[in-house]
Design a protein that fits this description.
2 copies of one chain form a homodimer. By secondary structure, chain A is an alpha/beta fold. Chain A folds into 2 domains: 262 residues, Queuine tRNA-ribosyltransferase-like (TIM Barrel, Alpha-Beta Barrel); 91 residues, no CATH class. Helix content of chain A is 41%, strand content 19%. Chain A contains 15 helices and 16 strands. In chain A, the strands form 4 sheets. The first copy, chain A, has an 8-stranded parallel beta sheet. A 3-stranded antiparallel beta sheet of chain A has the order 1-2-3. In chain A, a hairpin with a 2-residue loop joins strand 15 and strand 16. Chain A is globular. Chains A and B meet through helix 13 and helix 14 of A and helix 13 and helix 14 of B.
């Protein structure tokens, strides 16, 4: 028995579900904080859980290079290694190889690349990607795919997608099934609806425990992304979770849930938090802005995270000006809480048949909405 | 009524006491974690409290420059600003002016200096030091003194000490007494017993709520430091707490408690933690050392801190190698726990009349005692 998904409620295309795994249950729609190198940067893992996160994401590329998949396995697997007993989804490493590694050579067998850390040479094939994620003890394993660059001609997108489908088949063959563990396929096809639909058909024929939509949030813009979702998601098996990779801002997430997506991951809340950008109701603010220096208001009056309950904007501003670690620690916590609050409200909205009412509250403009002090 | 000190037990010269303040009670001997710029670096304040710390130290020099004492006052004082409701002792800024600031001019009036942050010009006088610490809302205020450089001739040490005594008198005049708040004097006199004793007499005549021994841990070495304590502490009023400023390693603390000191502060546990050095029973280890990469042992089997309960040395090593914030966060927590465990055991030892037995357990060599894996 792999992971199992129960679809509990729908409201339009929006879905309220429950994903059961070997390491615990995940309420969907769900946002997965990113723990790239075996840590959600600046957060104790029990703090991550306190925000309401039930699953986190790990990056195969980073972990295979440092400390190495075999080392993680020796030290008890990623859950024990990083002290996160809950579910972990690992990506396949393909995306990061293309964006971070040096001297990449990609062919039918797989991809050869040089580490961005020490220049050492590595190979990633569908079989090795499965092997690494098994060594990491990933609850949910992702197939190795090629994230088609954007823009791509229809022919380029087709060639790339077809290779990803052949790799998906090899991943399915190599994946070692264990109770409560799952393997997700990844839909490619760039912005071409027919390619996306062919990709869905290929993957559904192979059969996966969940389906990701990949190759988005790579510069195509929100309207194009939503169009791709509308051309793709309705064709996906209804009884499996759907995961939109690498997305996004709160309004991206709302729009994708509206179109039937169940799972998300993005570095935005953590990365923004480290640089002083906070997500608040109605927009974002940059705490480094001088307007906050004398403010005794909390970051967000409606938020129950430690940053908002314990500190003034003036203090948080001071921490960033003084380059104190606690600044990134507190803003990361707040942003993760903000994202989890978003997901909790979306789930409640779907349950109550009032998804659109909740959605409107969160679809703030995606621009910097700096408010005075 | 200022702060009040109750001496509960003694074992030899070692003292077990209780210091009552406007912001809470402090069991002595006590170690104060250093929160230089309004934060104990890398620690949430509730985590600092979880280690057992009952009082922290703030640095007047850093806070007067950024964000400024008036700003801290506007934002509710240092307790509210940094979300630490417990007692806070602030130093007077004199020591940091001499070690960090540029272009210092010291005369009878006070000291003029340039900020190491932005080059702006500032003055610190005994009166301004009292004013700043009142604006910060320090539970315990320290007099402005001149930390006599080491080495100093007896004449230099005398001139410097005498000026500090005149400043101490001005501080006492300027200090605004409030219930549960205290003002501590600082004994100077370098390594010269007679000067130390004259300094004690001067301060006791003025009358303070506590007495610090300053001008030590500046390069004189542990034997000379202990000699100064032996020539100084017995002359201090018995009914007031004694504070050894800027000290030290665990064995320094044990030796000073043996000689009658009640309070300590030092950046060592926090600063070492950030660079990967951990204090463990029997010595220290550097977690960056390759010997730890594959170790599944905890940092210290006897420690109950999150770093020791939740993680292997192999994981902590990985965090430091990958420059992940969680590495400094966890090692700082551990080192602060180690120091608080030391203080708790010393207090228990004094209560039980077995101080020397406890002391021996903690007087490990002060050198790097790296153990294999």
């Amino acid at each position: 028995m792999s992971t199992s998904f129960e679809l509990r409620e729908t409201d339009g295309a929006a879905r309220r579900g429950k994903l059961s795994t070997a390491h615990g249950m995940i309420n969907t729609p769900a946002f997965m904080p990113v723990g790239t190198a075996g840590t959600v940067k600046g957060m104790h893992p029990d703090s991550v859980a306190l925000t309401g996160a039930q699953i986190i994401l790990g990056n195969t590329y980073h972990l295979m290079l440092r400390p190495g998949a075999e080392r993680v396995a020796e030290l008890g697997g990623l859950h024990r290694f990083m002290n996160w007993p809950g579910p972990i989804l690992t990506d396949s490493g393909g995306f990061q190889v293309m964006s971070l590694a040096g001297l990449r050579t990609i062919n039918e067998e797989g991809v050869v690349f040089k580490s961005h850390i020490d220049g050492s040479k590595h190979q990633l094939t569908p079989e090795r990607a499965m092997d690494i994620q098994r060594l990491l003890d990933a609850t949910i394993t992702m197939v190795l795919d090629e994230c088609t660059p954007f823009p791509a001609t229809e022919q380029e997108a087709e060639d790339s997608m077809m290779r990803s489908m052949r790799w998906a088949e090899r991943c399915k063959q190599a994946f070692v099934q264990r109770p409560g563990y799952g393997l997700f396929g990844i839909v490619q096809g760039s912005v071409y609806p027919k390619l996306r639909q062919r990709s869905v058909t290929s993957l559904a024929t192979i059969g996966f425990d969940g389906y990701a939509v990949g190759g988005l949030a790579v510069g195509e813009g929100q309207p194009a992304m939503f169009e791709v979702l509308e051309a793709t998601v309705p064709h996906l098996p209804k009884d499996r979770p759907r995961y939109l990779m690498g997305v996004g801002r709160p309004d991206d997430i709302v729009g994708a849930v509206r179109r039937g997506i169940d799972m998300f991951d993005c570095v935005m809340p953590t990365r923004s938090g480290r640089t002083g950008q906070a997500f608040i109701r109605g927009g974002t603010l940059n705490i480094r802005n001088a307007v906050h220096a004398a403010s005794d208001r909390p970051l967000d009056e409606t938020c129950r995270c430690p940053a908002c309950r314990g500190y003034s904007r003036g203090y948080l501003h001071h921490l960033f000006k003084a380059n104190e670690m606690l600044g990134p620690m507190l803003l990361t916590w707040h942003n993760l809480q903000h994202y989890q609050d978003l997901m909790a409200e979306l789930r409640q909205g779907i349950e109550a048949g009032r998804f659109e009412e909740v959605a409107r509250r969160w679809e703030a403009p995606a621009t910097e909405a700096e408010d005075p002090g």
